[in-house]
Amino acid sequence: MVLTAGDDAPTVTAPNQDGDTVSPAFEEPTVVYFYPRDDTPGCTIEANQFQRERETYRDAGVDIYGVSTDDVDSHRSFCDSEGLKFDLLADSDGEIAEAFDVDLRDGATARTTFLLADGKVEAVYEGVDPDGHAREVLLDAVDDGLVTLPE
Questions:
Q1: Taking the model in full, what pTM does it have?
Q2: Which of 3, 5, 22, 82 counts the most CB atoms within 10 A of its CB?
């Protein structure tokens, strides 16, 4: 069963696309989105839309992390080919998916997004439609009072 709103954010550590170890604290508003595979159509749409909204997320004080079971090299290639400037965490062993209770199907994570703040899960999105999702999460964070968009 996937974590739900009000649950404590898990403690996770994983390498990003550069091989650097990342351990998000989830104290500041943070989006963690799980996606099945690098370089697939839906995942590319979702990543590109998070990239397109990245400045607005950053201005609002929200961090973005993408997570899949692809390895560091795959993430590096995906970031390079798509111009992604946020961290993709390599969850090759499925430990992050397990910490968030996200299903693995045929070795790939189910498309699920978490909005976290103050060490807690604020919202969960399951069965995500990649098109428009990045904007939806940002607007929900504003509507929930977690962040304010700069004028």
A1: 0.95
A2: 3
CATH number at residue 64: 3.40.30.10
Give the residue among 114, 111, 96, 102 at the shortest CA–CA distance from 30: 114
Residue type, 48: N
- Per-position pLDDT tens, the chain of length 151: 689 999 999 999 999 999 999 999 999 999 999 999 999 999 999 999 999 999 999 999 999 999 999 999 999 999 999 999 999 999 999 999 999 999 999 999 999 999 999 999 999 999 999 999 999 999 999 988 888 887 7
Structure tokens at 86: 């946020």
Q: How many structural domains comprise the chain?
A: 1
Q: Report d(CA 4, CA 69) in Å as an integer.
A: 22
Is residue 148 in some structural domain?
Answer: no
Q: Is residue 151 part of a domain?
A: no
